[in-house]
Amino acid sequence: MPAEQFVSALNDQICREFGASQQYAAVAVYFDDLTLPQMAAFFYRQSLEERDHAMMMVKYLLDADEKPVIPGVEPPQVEFTDIVEPVKVALEQEKRVTDQISSLAAVARDANDFVSEQFTQWFLKEQVEEVATMSDLVAVCERSKDRPSEIEDYLVREHPGDEGEDPTAPQPAGGAVS
Description:
By secondary structure, the chain is an all-alpha fold. It has one domain (4-70, 78-158): Ferritin (Up-down Bundle). The chain contains 5 helices and no strands. 34% of the residues are buried.
């Protein structure tokens, strides 16, 4: 059984993951409205991925016979000054999530809840990739903000959207949906 403090912290993280999903959906819509289909598709995929992360956490709690809480979330930022700002928002979000998941692992460790600590390890690995991806995308967007087609070309080359599933990923409640 997971430690009580871990269950509480994981439910808080479920809320943040759903919030991240909404923020990415808002960014995707922003790029869709600008007719930047590769940027839109990239962030729509990110939105689904964050939703799946929340549902992986839900499944963990369900499997542990604990009660997951499905929260309401704060409205995401929907107005941006240029095409760089939403990507910077995404990068800052990923850095925050890295800190949050690290704290979650620490809660489990401090409670001697080694099973829950092990559960957090996949998410920590994932965050390294997410921060690197968003850092690179911010650099590309800053360099090419006046030439958005170069950003689109970068995404076609570097993030075609067919990365496939990670077989080590926890299963989301309801099965994989992205």
